[in-house]
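Cross-check.
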Amino acid sequence: MVTRESVCANSLSPSPIGEIRHLHTLGPTGTNLEAAAYEWFRRRGLEGQGRVTLHATLEYAMETVPRDGAHALVACAVYPELHTLVFGNLRVCRMVDSFVWPTHEMVLAVAPGARTEPRTVATHPAPVGLVPPTSERQLVTSNAQAAIDCADGKTEGCVTTVVAARAHGLRVLRSFGEVPMVYTVHHVREDTP
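Predicted model, tokenized:
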């Protein structure tokens, strides 16, 4: 039986943070979560020593991450369905750290020469509120993917990071600035009875 006392006792046990050498998070390259993963290693004094692997979704990452204790997921507080990811994986995944750090500058961008008010906008569900009210929203798996879809002509515009917009040659129409964000680190280890 789990009691408040046993939870408190467990919280005094050595932290598994020291075991983590491999972070898994949302890709493709250019996401705020990728930057946050590298920032976490930097803050731990492990810059250049840790490995970051990018996945199409955090749900897919959770399915494929080795459960040996050396791996963790990096998420953010506004990731859609984070609660489902956490509570659906309690036997193998524990939140062990969090930190506040700003996102890259968030922007509304279009391909060069495109309209100033895009009819269609690719966006991750988290920043969907930044899409102009007159634009049709097309949901994608990440801010970086939104930039890729816009550059490929799948949409006229995108809500993305300035880093991804520049990487794909997009023109910034509007900047929303950096957004203070809470990032969470979820240690992954097979639960042993």
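DSSP finds six helices and ten strands in the chain. The longest strand covers residues 93-102. Passed to J.P. for a second look.
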